[in-house]
Amino acid sequence: MPTILLIEDEFTFAEALRYNLEREGYLVLHASDGIHGLDLARRELPNLIVLDIMLPRLDGFSICRILRQESDVPIMMLTARQDEVDRIAGLELGADDYIGKPFSLGEFLARVRAILRRSERQPRHTGRELLEAGVIKVDPSSRRAWRDSDELTLPQKEFDLLTCLIRHHGIVLSRDLLLDHVWGSDFVGDSRTVDVHIRWLREKIEYDPARPRYIQTVRGIGYRFEAPADA
Ligand code: CA
Questions:
Q1: What is the pLDDT of residues 154-178, one digit of tens each?
Q2: Is residue 81 very low, low, confident or very high in pLDDT (cuts 50, 70, 90)?
Q3: How remote is the CA of residue 124 from the centroid of ligand 1, in Å?
Q4: Which is deepest, 37, 97, 163, 227, by most CB within 10 Å?
Q5: How far, in Å, is the centroid of ligand 1 from the Cα of 228?
Q6: pLDDT tens for each residue of 201-211
Q7: How many other C-beta atoms can be found within 10 angstroms of the C-beta atom of residue 213?
Q8: What's the DSSP call for residue 189?
Q9: Is residue 85 packed enough to be buried (19+ CB in 10 Å), middle (13-18) or exposed (0-12)?
């Protein structure tokens, strides 16, 4: 059964779409902010992504651009009905289709069926995911990581932390978000846990941990993973 990832922050609207898609027999995943949506898209490999533009934390255009560098998952963007600019921008970024809000559910479901039919006929990338930035490589499925050709020995949390950082490279991630992703939202502790693990991780991946080049501290917010330009 096809899985559809819905990235939409208006709760009642998202619930209505979810209800109708589930009635059609699709499995529906829902994210109400951009970072969570991007994360689900990468982790769950849905058959279709229905993507709103205005979203908290990371907008739909950015998500579309990032995903297009990594996969050919079909993307349907939700735009304001009259907004030609949004539609053109979305298609230029590689969205497969767009639908203007407000729209009828009948039209929406017909578009969903059409996109899924089209993509079924095309071969999809199913190769295992290898995350790479500079000399750092991470293979989430086998839980292995390398610096150059040297395999790194990372405890579970440090591995999860590195995976989360490299997946979202170039984006500032707050300590709270990292806590949520790596330790889970029910973790009892504070953000210093993140700082401690970042220090340990730097000792393993940075050539000079005192002057980190991969894991940048963003003062007052959190961390950003960046491959140095000369790496
Ligand atoms: Ca929105």
A1: 999 999 999 999 988 888 888 988 8
A2: low
A3: 29
A4: 37
A5: 34
A6: 999 999 999 99
A7: 17
A8: S
A9: exposed
